[in-house]
Amino acid sequence: MNYEEFKSQVMVLTGINLSAYKENQMKRRIDAIIKKNQCNNYLEYSRLLKVNPVSLQEFVTYLTINVTEFFRNPSQWDILEKQIFPLLLQKKRTIKIWSAACSTGDEPYSLAMVLSKFMPLSQISIIATDIDKEVLEKAKQGQYITRSIANVPKEFQDKFFTEDNGIYTIKSNLKDCITFKQHNLLKDPYPANMDLIVCRNVLIYFTEDAKKEIYTNFNKALIDDGILFVGSTEQIIMCQEYGFESYKIFFYQKAGLKR
Ligand SMILES: C[S@@+](CC[C@H](N)C(=O)[O-])C[C@H]1O[C@@H](n2cnc3c(N)ncnc32)[C@H](O)[C@@H]1O
Known about the structure:
Strand order of the largest sheet: 6-2-1-7-8-10-9
Largest sheet: 7 strands, mixed
Bound molecules: S-adenosylmethionine
Oligomer: single chain
CATH architecture of the largest domain: 3-Layer(aba) Sandwich
CATH topology of the largest domain: Rossmann fold
Number of helices: 10
């Protein structure tokens, strides 16, 4: 079995289209997990994936790289709080937010905490999605170790977490602000009428063609003047081609009708 055939098998077994991910990086990672599972080649490993659901889930989690933390890149969260939320809330009292590729939930919970400075928790509603079911389960549980919450301001730690033996658990009033759902950015329909889409540190793994398709879909999913917040190595070259204007570094605004 060659890599092309292995990719087809993965598509059948997981719905993940490996052709949309950068090939060299992906092949290196797959070779490493094949070795770790003491298989000799794609064929042996694909047989293992077919018969063993635990290995299959381990493969998906390994492939998708779930590294995340609360308030990742704090200075960008400062811009979000001081400039982006006030901008989006100029004309309306509530906003629709999508945290796409949210991993274990650190990002959508961070969003809800900041937004709580602007409105009661009962008015906050964030959709948070990821392709990986296992991280979504962790996100719903909302339990974190000290390291992941290092950037959470003290006032938020006191307000929104309970601590027990070094495990920090999100309080249910904050959990209730977020709906977690499985969603594949390369395949599933996108939600509509979003005011803010936060999609950080995932597009770096995709090919240029896949990125183009995703930017176009994000643009359609936003309302006019809505904002897309990207990761710190993910500036969009020629953002106008996808209907965006650069608003601040790492924040892109959907060009509205009035422009
Ligand atoms: C490095 S994490 C980024 C988490 C968070 N956004 C952050 O910046 O801290 C990348 C996430 O993208 C998810 N992912 C990878 N491919 C995806 C796809 N095709 N659709 C949706 N999520 C995907 C992974 O499961 C992983 O949780």
